[in-house]
Design brief:
The structure is a homodimer of 332-residue chains.
Chain A (H helix, E strand, L loop, with lengths): L1 H22 L18 H11 L12 H4 L46 H10 L8 H9 L2 H11 L6 H13 L7 H6 L8 H12 L16 E3 L15 H4 L7 E3 L21 H13 L5 H12 L27
């Protein structure tokens, strides 16, 4: 025990020393603060917000974008996989919409090049919202308030999926989470994180986690194989291979953001764990070939919890009512 | 045609005359303005709001109170009946939560005496949220932020369904919609409604609709048989009979509020129409034995649309994350 405490004290002083030297060089850190979302067309953001919460974009009139990317719960649904039309269970864990604007592409396999392209997917996916773009638009067209909004924002009398997804994507671009404690530290506030959290960050870098989880979103900016060093147990989800058909893309996924990670359990594309400690342990093993000690895992997790930022402040939208001409929801 | 116009001009002048006399006596109108919700314990309302939007109160972790009483869409779900656990379809149209505090009892059949009693129902209803009170509480107990809130608001270390439903009911009590155009008119603003809308209100009184739809909520304050004069087609939904087992309560329902009625299609307990004109026509026929003329229906509907009030301004809650000890959602 004495040995352990001596080692611990030594490590701690090393970390504190490291912390001091870092203070002068944080601009060079591989993780960058989340910028505020500013300069957006407010009317477009408001329209996009309504559409994001709009259950009438689904066949049943029950499922909205927010059903699976719930802004109350870290921009995800905290389920192993999402519940879609007629209670179909999705094939993969729903990624958070928060900070998704920083992703190099959308979906785990990156099959959508941006948020606009992504937004078109679930509306027409038979296992998700199960509508069609035509039906969704024919609903919006019969609602005067929507027609007027599209007219005034896009100058068009004809609503198309193009404007619908543009508005949703614009709203989603505003869904950033600045001013996490870690970002405050990055910006120079020494007291924003404590010694253990800082130690966790240093371990995160030393062990190599940082090689994929870096940048503004602490991830989201590269595709990587799940199972670089040690094969992962899920060999059925092929990831980016489905998009490119390249053998080298088998089991390759977009690296998920670690921003707000404490809010978005369960973890991994297959939601195989709800425990962040276990997720960190497995990642180190499969991706880095490193067997982390339990105290290292704990410190890294303490660091990860400092990545929770200010959640978007959303005034819950009031949606305009349907008219007698509006196509009716179909629950079956 | 000349005769018609003469009659119309005569009626109009009568209405205008009636309008003038009303101006001095609106305090005596059978409909009363919706009061603002004030004086509530803010911390309790905030906790109640979180619980109202809390999907972890359901077995699946997907359904919250707001799923069926959506505050984006008039406090209801705009579906014939609600979608519950595993996509079970409910037996009856979901009533609005807005202004529900003014109801003499809750549910269509009044089986819950107040909002607190009501809130306990859907959580444990196998066709709705499909949880149990025990499970819901064991989830809340493992989340420190919830534990602390209950402790600070109710002074208890032990969360029970009693505090959970008290907080939800308190939040729901704040969900009122004051300052509708009609209420402004009631309070003396002559220009808040136009001549046709006023004519609609006078018809609403003259034809007898007012005998059941009166008071603050324009309904909600009595139980009445659906089919007083002419039997209604739905003979399977027994209404209040299920609560009292009295033959005289067969097909008796709580009179629904007409506040925000334009937001809460489809109409009637069986959602048999999406068209407010048709709903008014049928009501007059079944309840009053009156065959309304088409222009009368139109005017009454114009009046009904003036009952849409200010919708509650809700800041979408950020829910505290689960911990490793939190029971996991079960979608099956």
């Amino acid at each position: 025990m004495t040995k352990f405490y001596l080692l611990f004290a030594l490590s701690l002083s090393l970390f504190l020393f490291a912390g001091e030297t870092l203070a002068v060089s944080r601009a060079g850190e591989p993780i960058k603060p989340v910028p505020e979302a500013t300069g957006y067309d407010e009317a477009k953001v408001e329209l996009g917000k309504k559409l994001f919460f709009e259950p009438r974009l689904s066949k049943s009139g029950f499922i909205s974008c927010n059903s699976c990317h719930n802004l109350s719960t870290g921009g995800a649904d905290n389920l192993p996989s999402s519940i879609g039309h007629k209670w179909q269970l999705g094939p993969i864990n729903s990624p958070t919409v928060l900070n998704s604007r920083f992703n190099l592409a959308q979906f785990w396999d990156g099959r959508a090049k941006d948020l606009k392209e992504q937004a078109a997917g679930p509306i027409a996916n038979p296992g998700e919202m199960a509508s069609t773009h035509e039906l969704a638009i024919s609903i919006l067209e019969t609602i005067p308030e929507y027609r007027n909004s599209f007219k005034s924002i896009y100058g068009t009398d004809v609503i198309s999926i193009n404007e619908v997804t543009d508005a949703i994507a614009t709203f989603e671009e505003t869904l950033v989470t600045p001013n996490s404690r870690f970002d405050l530290w990055l910006k120079g506030d020494d007291k924003a994180i404590n010694a253990n959290e800082l130690a966790g960050y240093l371990l995160f870098k030393q062990k190599g986690c940082i090689s994929c989880h870096n940048g503004v979103a602490v991830g989201g900016n590269s595709f990587q194989k799940f199972g670089v060093v040690k094969e992962y147990k899920d060999t059925e989800t092929l990831g980016r291979f489905n998009v490119t058909q390249k053998e080298s893309d088998r089991y390759v996924f977009k690296v998920p953001t670690l921003r707000n990670i404490e809010l978005t359990a369960p973890y991994f594309h297959d939601a195989s764990t709800w425990d962040l400690n276990k997720a960190v342990t497995e990642m180190a093993e499969h991706q880095l070939g490193v067997k982390l000690l339990s105290y290292e895992v704990k410190k890294i997790v303490l660091f990860l919890r400092t990545l929770t930022g200010e959640q978007p402040k959303i005034t819950y939208p009031v949606l305009p009512p349907s008219t007698v001409d509006t196509p009716k929801p179909d629950r079956m």
